[in-house]
Design a protein that fits this description.
Helix content: under 10%
Number of strands: 7
Oligomer: single chain
Distance between the termini: 71 Å
Length: 96
């Protein structure tokens, strides 16, 4: 009898960032995905994208209170993928 090994690696997209960014804050997003990742795709919700694991900080305009949907998609060599999404907000004033 022949057994086929069931895929035992886990692919899980995840990233860390602040929830709110004040004017002049540097938006930082750190990949914390796990698994045998071969490709990364970031969409920062502001028209900027990246295929780097940890990209340069994207630019957000803080002229008004705006929410952005940020997502990361990770893929392994077998074509499996997973996506993580987070809503962030830029605000005009952090001093109340």
């Amino acid at each position: 009898m022949r057994f086929t090994k069931v895929r035992d690696s886990i692919l899980k997209a995840a990233f860390n960032s602040a929830d709110v960014f004040c004017p002049n804050d540097i938006a930082s997003f750190t990949d914390s995905s796990i698994g045998p990742i071969k490709q990364w795709f970031w969409n920062f919700g502001n028209g900027e994208t990246s295929t780097q694991r940890n990209s340069s900080p994207p630019h957000y305009v803080s002229e008004s209170n705006i929410t952005y949907t940020v997502q990361i998609v990770v893929k392994d060599s077998g074509g499996c993928s997973d996506t993580a999404i987070k809503i962030i907000k830029t605000i005009t004033n952090c001093y109340t």
